[in-house]
Design goal:
single chain, about 260 residues, alpha/beta, Rossmann fold, 2 domains, 7-stranded parallel β-sheet, 8 helices, globular, binds NADP nicotinamide-adenine-dinucleotide phosphate
């Protein structure tokens, strides 16, 4: 399918690895020029070069922490006119509900709620001016179905979801479409370390822990960065002009509900 976005320009935050990288790859395949970002310069430059080698698009790499004012300023300075924004960052640490104090919540809100809001506030006005824009916020399946030990993530991402619900409806009349993409378990570094922790806890091999995990999903597997990127690219395409403020759960059917 032609996504109709060849020649557009996108920022994909937190995109040297994992889901962000999958989104950057899929947008590049659709002919989108990119600004990619992560804190670690080495992996970021490698990803930028991989994308340049594979697709005939311009890629600017900005090594910066997207959860800080300075980091966002660096990314925005390098960006120029942006048509597509994919918001992403690392997730907060797990724990128990009594573990978390005000500072922990502020850090989680900064990273997973206020950083994406700041990026939207910086870029959406120009999208409105040009009467076209797409924003996809990478949140989590935990917005639909809480993961108890991820209380910081559940809280911060719920806040972002509430903001997007209202804001998306205020800007849609100007051709700017904002939606959230909720990953279930995908095969990134994080999934690997979760499987290693399960194997250790249960005294089984990592392969066994991964096989048990995969069998629990209706598809018999977990998602890939390519699965995720393809859905993200569609959500950035010309075809989503009537899809506003939605929370798209990409989990292979793991969340068991009729609707
Ligand atoms: P990942 O494989 O660990 O990749 C994270 C990427 O983000 C890396 O490129 C990392 O590079 C970059 N990054 C992290 N913090 C950053 C920051 N402050 N500023 C700029 N770049 C940053 O993670 P992932 O699995 O793709 O997950 C992405 C998001 O989806 C996370 O918020 C995660 O909680 C959420 N999620 C993932 C899954 C899953 O199954 N994978 C499921 C639900 C939710 P540097 O470390 O070099 O900065």
């Amino acid at each position: 399918m032609d996504l109709g976005i060849s020649g557009k320009r996108a920022i994909v935050c937190a995109s040297s690895k994992g889901l962000g990288r999958g989104c950057a790859m899929a947008l590049a395949a659709a002919g989108v020029d990119l600004v990619v970002n992560a804190r670690g310069a080495e992996a970021l430059e490698k990803t930028a070069q991989d994308i340049r080698d594979r697709y005939n698009v311009n890629v600017t790499a900005v090594a910066a922490d997207i959860t800080t004012d300075d980091g966002r300023a660096e990314v925005l300075e390098a960006a120029g006119d942006i048509d597509i924004l994919v918001n992403n960052a690392g997730g907060p640490p797990p724990g128990f509900w009594t573990d978390w104090d005000r500072e922990d919540f502020i850090a989680a809100l900064d990273a997973n709620m206020l950083a994406p809001i700041a990026m939207m506030k910086a870029l959406v006005p120009d999208m409105i001016e040009r009467k076209w824009g797409r924003v996809v916020n990478i949140t989590s399946a935990s917005v639909r179905s809480p993961i108890s030990q991820l209380g910081l993530s559940n809280s911060a991402r719920a806040g972002l979801t509430g903001y997007v619900a209202g804001t998306s409806r205020q800007v849609a009349q100007h051709g700017v479409i904002i939606n959230n993409l909720l990953p279930g378990l995908h095969a990134t570094d994080r999934a690997k370390s979760l499987a290693e922790a399960t194997a250790k806890r249960e005294g089984v091999s990592v392969e066994m822990a991964e096989a048990t995990r995969d069998a629990a999903n209706p598809t018999g597997r977990i998602g890939s960065a390519a699965d995720f990127g393809a859905t993200c690219a569609f959500m950035c395409s010309q075809h989503v002009g009537f899809m506003v403020g939605q929370n798209i759960l990409l989990d292979g059917g793991a969340f068991n509900s009729t609707m």
